[in-house]
């Protein structure tokens, strides 16, 4: 095991596919990854607390420091949060960083905000997870207190990228540009990386399609894979 995290295995949108998650856990040793990132939707809408428990206990079998956030369909959010809190008592290497942050070997700081971030709209956490721009800005405001740590961000929502003509959230783009993380992992179609300011934005692929990616923090190399 490396003393610092270098390679991060990431994926998104498992959508309750426990078979795909089990296969992902099995390929972890082949990837040389030091940490795992998972971006919701963990389950389709209206999953029960026990569903999240089964999912997170299986995820813990990867035996890597793991950082995860919910997607828009992981609602109501208290079902997700309740079981995340319970499972993390038993498996402390799992870290829910939704609206929060955790430290990783490096030392790095890993922060995230799940659900959909909309530039105009109201906060919603019961039928769907949706957060207005001000919430994203406020949640990440605390990072000014730990500004010297290299940062890794997790968002479900892709940032707008005017240079590449890609749509997304202006608020997420502003948070990334303001805090300059080394990398931001986001949900989206395909498996790719791109530069936004001085930060890499990585779309790791959908686990429901078997997709995952491994990002090297030192070399900035993205290797894609599929568990199917």
Automatic annotation (TrEMBL):
Q: Which Pfam families match?
A: Metallophos_3
Q: Tell me the ranges covered by the Metallophosphoesterase TT1561-like domain, including all copies.
A: 1-227
InterPro entries linked to this entry: Metallo-depent_PP-like, TT1561-like
Q: Which protein are we looking at?
A: Heat-stable protein
Q: Give the classification, highest ranks.
A: Bacteria, Thermotogati, Deinococcota, Deinococci, Thermales
